[in-house]
Amino acid sequence: MGAYIYDLYDPHEDISYQIPQLWVEDDPGARDASVHYLDEFQVGDKLVLYYDYGDDWEFDIQIEKISRTKQGPVVARVLAGQRYGIIDDIGGVSGLKEYYSKCKKKQNLRFYEEWLGFLPNLDEFNVADINRELNE
């Protein structure tokens, strides 16, 4: 058993892995994500992760390495990346662009600081922080 794969889409096989309660009934390629796991994929497989349907985030994912261990479950781990990433409920790509633009112009960011509790630096990327959050 491994990590659940909710909201992943395999474009090669035209299969979407969905939470049963949110099933898209007219999708013939839909699979119950609660009975499928990351360790079903192979190195080189390319997938798409859909996140926060209101903001319409899409992430391309490629399986680069699979490590099998007998010491606990398989977990997803980020190997590399760039910049901070998304901010939940900011309004998708356009909302994130607006925030980034205001940061660069040093415009009034009080709304964001009150809403988020801090002001993320979108130019920073910390793989250790991301993997720690994935495992919480």
UniProtKB/TrEMBL annotation:
InterPro entries in the cross-refs: MM3350-like_sf (IPR024047), Plasmid_pRiA4b_Orf3-like (IPR012912)
Annotated ranges, domain Plasmid pRiA4b Orf3-like: 24-128
Name of the protein in question: Plasmid pRiA4b Orf3-like domain-containing protein
Domain of life: Bacteria
Species whose genome carries this gene: Ligilactobacillus saerimneri
Signal peptide segment: none
